[in-house]
Amino acid sequence: MTDVLVQQPNEIGNDDNLAVNVNQVTVDANGDEVKKQKKPKPNNKKLRQAEAAAKKALEGTTDEVTEMKNMVTVEAVPAADGEKKANKKKNKNKNKSNAAGKAKTLAAPTIPISAQFPDGNYPEGEVVQYHKPKDFPDNRTAIDRMSSEEKRALDRLHTDIYMELRQAAEAHRQTRQYMQKFIKPGMTMIEICEELENTARRLINENGLEAGLAFPTGCSLNHCAAHYTPNAGDTTVLDYDDVCKIDFGTHIKGRIIDCAFTLTFNNKYDKLLEAVREATNTGIKEAGIDVRLCDIGAAIQEVMESYELELDGKTYPIKSIRNLNGHSISPYRIHSGKTVPIVKGGESTRMEENEFYAIETFGSTGRGLVHDDMDCSHYMKNFDAPYVPLRLQSSKQLLGTINKHFGTLAFCKRWLDRAGATKYQMALKDLCDKNIVTAYPPLCDIKGCYTAQYEHTIMLRPTCKEVVSRGDDY
């Protein structure tokens, strides 16, 4: 608070005993110093006393008193009750304004992608021209698909499908770019997942099985490579030194975007992330029509294992996790039959025109081999599940809930809670035992190691390869 200037009266009587405090010096009416006083505590009481004493002595006017009046100042005093309330309200409003500004910076996107692009023309992903497969004979030339009018016509036939996938991809991009700023150490994994899922639901304009989330948010930490999402009551907190894989999916009419990235706060893991990101980009580069899946795996492994990571004075080779892989995708079916290995020695099956793939790679400082571990959270109804008579009424009810809300898309226990299911543990086990639903437990390497993941969804269009989930971030 600033100093307050106190206005003194114009007249003052001749009282030799009158003393007024001026700048911490006591003077009489003639201006002579009387006594050096200790600086008083500034408060309203002192101010009132000084004013009362001055008023009591009013009888005449002198130039000295006028001069003294102009010199008299009282140091800043605490505000009166009314002023305190006003200032408190002002500060409160200021704090609200600051908080609003901060919230505005981190505000989650809320406008659905369909409203952002009302003409239905959604952004195209990264377009890459095909190259001739490595095993093609030298005398066989790859088709120039970009300039082929026949291939261009085939492209136009599938425009609706491409737009559905691009819409889902844009929802994924905007969600993850917001979450990369939102996620901080100290947050619980449930808090992170719920914020991400709520944001994605708004952007995708969730509508039953027509549009929504394709599978639960994976947020696997450190040695856990995949398939971990917190169940209700999980108190796990994200730490500054954690390596967190954020893997989530969106879909429009079953056209799935499967895309993932790794999040760290400590830059000591940078080489691990770089190795996996480059391995994924290598897989994308090698993929194409007529390319053998085994050739993609060999190229990925070569890049991945050319890296190493130094931690606390020890050097770790980065290994491809050999029992994890990419996969083909079809409507409402996240794994639709073909696998894309990330090590050499895979199948010689070839990619084909108009197929959709998730190209994902996992790197590890451990053994490079994962196993089931920890509490299960991910489940999925089998795409080709046969009809099986169910005796338990609870199993019938749970299956009805699964069919209505998820169909053959993956789900988690938190989502069952959200759908209103209760006391479903026995029923869920019964459906798994009857092979109607499959459980997908978390997949972990050895404890103490670190794993990372990057993933993109690609479309093998007749004219070109489109990395539909590509963004400015990765």
Low-confidence stretches: 1-31, 33-40, 57-80, 94-104
Report helical residue fraction: 25-40%
Sheet having the most strands: 7 strands, antiparallel
Strand content: 15-25%
| Molecular shape | globular
Counted by DSSP, the helix tally is 12
- Oligomer state of the chains in this structure: single chain
Give me the secondary-structure category: alpha+beta
Radius of gyration: 35 Å
Would you report the number of β strands?
A: 21
First CA to last CA: what distance? Answer: 51 Å
Summed over residues and divided by their number, the pLDDT gives a mean of: 85
Indicate the topology.
Elements: E1 20-22, E2 25-27, E3 33-36, H1 44-56, H2 63-71, H3 81-105, H4 113-116, E4 126-128, H5 149-157, H6 159-182, H7 189-204, E5 211-221, E6 224-226, E7 244-252, E8 255-263, H8 270-286, H9 293-304, E9 308-311, E10 314-317, E11 319-320, E12 326-329, E13 339-340, E14 356-364, E15 371-372, E16 378-381, H10 393-405, E17 411-412, H11 413-418, H12 425-433, E18 437-440, E19 443-444, E20 451-460, E21 465-467
Helix pairs in contact: 6-7, 8-9, 10-12
Describe this structure in words.
- The protein is α+β, with helices and mostly antiparallel strands.
- Helices cover 33% and strands 20% of the residues.
- The chain has twelve helices and 21 strands.
- It has helices at 44-56, 63-71, 81-105, 113-116, 149-157, 159-182, 189-204, 270-286, 293-304, 393-405, 413-418, 425-433; strands at residues 20-22, 25-27, 33-36, 126-128, 211-221, 224-226, 244-252, 255-263, 308-311, 314-317, 319-320, 326-329, 339-340, 356-364, 371-372, 378-381, 411-412, 437-440, 443-444, 451-460, 465-467.
- Strands 4, 11, 12, 13, 14, 20 and 21 form a seven-stranded antiparallel sheet that branches.
- Strand 20 and strand 21 (465-467) form a beta hairpin.
- It is globular, with a radius of gyration of 35 Å.
- The two termini are 51 Å apart.
